[in-house]
Amino acid sequence: MLKKKIWIFIGLFVIVFIVGGGLLLYSWGVFATSFKKANNDTLVTKQQTLPIPPLLEDKNPAPNKAEFEITARDGTMEFFEGIITNTRGYNGNFLGPVIRVRTGEEVSVKVTNELDESTTLHWHGLEVDGENDGGPHNEIKPGETWNPMFTINQPAATLWYHPHQMHKTGKQVYEGMAGLFYIEDEVSDSLKIPKEYGVNDVPLIIQDRRFDGDGQLDYELGMKDSIVGFEGHTILVNGAVNPFVEAPQGMMRLRILNGSNGRIYNLKFSNGQEFYQIASDGGFLEKPVRMDSLTVGSGERAEILVDFSKVAMGETVELQDQGISFMSFVVNQASDKVYSIPEKLTTIEKIDERKATTKREFNFQGTGSSVSINGVQMDMDRIDEEVNLGSTEIWEVGNFTGQTHPFHAHGVQFQILDRNGNPPPDNEAGWKDTFLVKPGENVRVIATFKHEGIFMYHCHILEHEDAGMMGQFLVEP
């Protein structure tokens, strides 16, 4: 304990110098950005209803089997009136379709790369072996097809997929390459909650983007972007700027993904109304958690139930981040069903801390191009941690930097034990594959490692990941 306190003191001491220099670089970044020709105020928003990603067709009619086809390709979008923006997407111009499967299904996905550069496709939150995980080792070269196959062996959840190409994850995600991955099971079937896809069960992929004066996506990273991660001036939802939803005067289920490269959102409704979080990254919570705001870091997901029954017909409620509205719910439909908040959602078997055979520490350090975990940067030829297949471990993630970082590990779902020795908030009491770690904070998590292979752990600020704030762990018998 004394040794840890000494390291924390040293870390905080170092932060003083890092932050001092960082502030100078940050100020220059702000100055430089203000003189770029990008000025989103000159671009006229194309007002539209919220786009709903299509459900991807399952091409295998056999029971307990599913087969999908995904193509990564270039595209164009009209984010602003009369302006065509170059983009990338899966099976379309921007983002990708929703893949929906069931627990127990054997799944095959043929992923074809029609881009002019290599890419990968990572199943964020899915518990699979390393060969099918889609990390940087699973490179798909231009013109090639990758065919991962796996069995779904985890509960109902809202996951997602995105590229994980070494040093290019941030750029490729920013250009539009991301999509949602739904798992359903008997529990989700039995719950009396909204389930009509795109009507009262609505996905919200929230991302921020920066556009230049010609309306093109601007991913020229300055010093500020390298230090804090990329943050844009315009927030998109499902690929649309300031969209609106025609909402029923009743309950809606919103499946929220923070698909931004680095931004942390603090979400609230403009009328101040409360809502209930029912699921986190890896599936349903044991019971709904009443909230009036929701913080989600890059890569995190949350499902919420929001009841518009007390909103007058014809009124508009806006979803906001830090008080700034970026999408609207226009309540103009009578609800054909009446829902109530379930008292219980599911049962989560807590992992006994006494079962842990190993404890590991992972510390976020550095800033800008010097970011690291445990003092080292990512090396594809180096295995940083070796984990026994089937073992239960406690990982303690510390933050010795001056900013908040989201920690993510592939192929596994965690349970949070505590934050600085205190129990996690109720909405973090379920399964998590991504979690925020504030400056000076230590977060202890526990997990059982069920799949073999090489996996990544990293900061999910994509600019930090690309700069080397990432490591590898090998799971084997």
Major sheet characteristics: 7 strands, mixed
What is the rounded distance between the termini? Answer: 32 Å
Report the principal-axis shape: globular
What class, by secondary structure content? mainly beta
Task: Using the coordinates shown, work out and report the CATH topology of one domain.
Answer: Immunoglobulin-like
Low-confidence stretches: 1-10, 12-39
Using DSSP, what is the number of strands? 31
Strand order of the largest sheet: 12-11-10-14-19-16-17
Named at the architecture level, the CATH assignment of one domain is: Sandwich
Give the helix proportion (percent range).
10-25%
Mean pLDDT: 92
Keywords: Membrane, Metal-binding, Oxidoreductase, Transmembrane, Transmembrane helix
Pfam family, one: Cu-oxidase_2
InterPro entries: Cu-oxidase-like_N, Cu-oxidase_C, Cu-oxidase_fam, Cu_oxidase_CS, Cu_oxidase_Cu_BS, Cupredoxin
Organism: Pallidibacillus thermolactis
List the helices and strands and how they pair.
Layout: H1 2-34, E1 65-80, E2 83-90, E3 99-102, E4 106-113, E5 122-124, E6 145-146, E7 149-151, E8 157-162, H2 169-174, E9 179-184, H3 186-190, E10 201-209, H4 223-228, E11 234-237, E12 240-241, E13 244-248, E14 251-258, E15 265-269, E16 275-280, E17 283-291, E18 294-296, E19 301-307, E20 316-321, E21 324-333, E22 358-365, E23 372-373, E24 385-388, E25 392-399, E26 405-409, E27 415-419, E28 434-437, E29 442-448, E30 453-459, H5 462-467, E31 470-476
Parallel strand pairs: 1-4, 3-9, 10-14, 13-21, 22-25, 24-31
Antiparallel strand pairs: 1-2, 4-6, 4-7, 5-8, 8-9, 10-11, 11-12, 14-19, 15-18, 15-20, 16-17, 16-19, 20-21, 22-23, 25-29, 26-28, 26-30, 27-29, 30-31
